[in-house]
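Researcher: Structure prediction, please.
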Amino acid sequence: MLVHCGDYYEDALKLGNMFGIETIAVRGNCDRSFTRDEFAILETEAGDFFVTHGNMYNVGYSNEDVYETARNYGCTGAIFGHTHRSENVDVDGFLLLNPGSLSRPRDGSGGTFAVLSTSDGGYEATVLRYEDYMRDAARPVGKARSGHLRELFNWADGQ
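Model: Predicted structure follows.
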């Protein structure tokens, strides 16, 4: 599943269609019809996750608003964007996850994304650096390299 935390909502849906995978996407401050109420609930066996862009919850300054809002919805965690800086924080069993940005990182990382695995037993969240992922990814011998993640998301970011 692709979870997209805002900006270029329509492009996220196109990517999901390209890959043929379920996609949850929310609008961000760069989308035309963005409203404060723009969020989604990702239902998993580990609990629900509040998905939002984050700018209306002041995530650039504090995660308190997004934390409280997600808790009010009975969620296990919040997944958000906006800052272009990755975060993976556990607050007493509550996940605050920002995947960062693949194409326009603001933390000197060269680009990041997150992987969230869920099960009945809980969840595991990992933020991966794009360069490390591409270097370490096992590629079958004789198969052409495909799935240029950064190029696809550069396209999705309107570039």
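Model: The chain has four helices and nine strands.
Researcher: Thanks, that helps.
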